[in-house]
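4.2 Preliminary Data

To establish feasibility before requesting continued support, the project team ran the inverse folding procedure on a target of 389 residues. The structure was first converted into the token representation described in Section 3, and no sequence information of any kind was made available to the design step. The complete token record follows.
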């Protein structure tokens, strides 16, 4: 299954482009599912058919789904309370009833991740189009599965779980009940589910379509989005320029905005494949308006972003980890090594990544930003590096 993630700055028309892309793919013969996390049914308004907690067929080969975050949140909380009963009782905690639970901020995004996983596992669709939130929230959402798995490994490491047969004895020796085995089982189940979401996002068939209105603000947003996506290793497939104005006479009030749009389009075309969606003079509603936008279907995936390790031990005595970071500024970069992990920050974007196995036996020897690429030098640690015979 091919996955196309669609994001952009707020108000850029992400939902409209998601709906138009999905409709174009369905008309090209691909069984397509379009997902949205909005509480309000903006997706249904654009498609002309209400969407909700259950997938609904909105056109031949096209299904739309807006998962019910509230129901999922209540079910997850009830299950967690049941599995963590021993710990909660030890703390004297009062249980929450499902009826009194209101979804916390972020519940929609978690529901979207679960729906993404379920859709991928179902194997019913050729293409999955995901209407993501605006860029900052989208990047935080896409990073969430890996971060939550990391937290689970630190807080509830599976290797420290006491053997079932010893738990009563250890509990009496310690004088307090040990964490329930169900708590570890829950953590393991969550880790498995999060790994399934990670696998969808890391699949070579996954890529990102950026949406922005051409102009100074849109150009800045695309540059920032490209850097954030690069930090997370996600490829930008193409850019949709939304609400492109028609050519206008020099004495028209449209001449200035149109000139700004042309400048942004020329800049984007130097780096990306750019699709222009004309300004219809109204908010698109229904299949006919979406067809008038002439949005392309998903197209072939550009493939994963590579972070290769170059072996320069013969020439310079180092290994070089090359990380593409288009648009990064030297003064905004931060690198911290923590054990076998690297904390990478570029401007407002931050990610903790495990070091490739070959670099874990090395010490950081320096770093440089050249030609939109971060090059980190690692010198083999004599204490850990195998000696040549």
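Position-by-position output of the design step:
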């Amino acid at each position: 299954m091919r996955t196309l993630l669609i994001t952009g700055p707020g108000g850029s028309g992400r939902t409209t482009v998601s709906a138009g892309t999905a409709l174009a793919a369905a008309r090209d013969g691909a069984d397509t599912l379009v997902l949205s996390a909005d509480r309000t049914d903006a997706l249904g308004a654009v498609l002309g058919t209400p969407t909700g907690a259950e997938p609904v067929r909105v056109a031949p080969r096209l299904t739309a789904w807006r998962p019910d975050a509230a129901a999922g949140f209540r079910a997850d909380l009830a299950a967690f309370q049941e599995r963590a009963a021993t710990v909660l009782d030890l703390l004297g905690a009062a249980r929450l009833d499902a009826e009194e639970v209101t979804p916390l901020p972020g519940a929609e995004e978690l529901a979207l991740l679960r729906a993404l996983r379920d859709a991928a596992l179902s194997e019913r669709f050729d293409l999955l189009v995901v209407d993501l939130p605006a860029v900052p929230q989208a990047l935080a959402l896409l990073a969430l599965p890996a971060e939550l798995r990391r937290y689970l490994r630190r807080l509830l490491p599976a290797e420290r779980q006491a053997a079932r047969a010893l738990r009563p004895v250890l509990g009496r020796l310690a004088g307090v009940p040990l964490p329930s085995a169900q708590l570890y089982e829950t953590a393991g189940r969550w880790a498995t589910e999060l790994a399934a979401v990670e696998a969808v996002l890391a699949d070579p068939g996954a890529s990102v379509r950026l949406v922005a209105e051409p102009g100074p603000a849109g150009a800045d947003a695309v540059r920032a989005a490209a850097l954030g996506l690069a930090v997370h290793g996600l490829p930008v497939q193409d850019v949709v320029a939304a609400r492109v104005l028609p050519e206008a006479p020099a004495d028209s009030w449209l001449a200035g905005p149109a000139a700004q749009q042309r400048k942004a389009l020329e800049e984007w075309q130097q780096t990306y494949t750019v699709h222009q969606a004309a300004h219809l003079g109204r908010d698109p509603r229904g299949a006919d308006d979406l067809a008038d936008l002439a949005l392309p279907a998903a197209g072939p995936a550009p493939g994963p972003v590579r972070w290769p390790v170059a072996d320069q031990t013969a020439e310079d005595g180092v290994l070089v980890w090359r990380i593409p970071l288009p648009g990064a500024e030297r003064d905004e970069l931060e690198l911290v090594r923590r054990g076998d992990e690297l904390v990478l920050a570029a401007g407002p974007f931050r990610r903790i990544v495990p070091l490739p196995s070959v670099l874990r036996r090395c010490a950081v020897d320096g770093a440089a930003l050249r030609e939109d690429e971060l090059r980190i030098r690692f010198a083999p640690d004599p204490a850990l590096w195998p000696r040549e015979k």
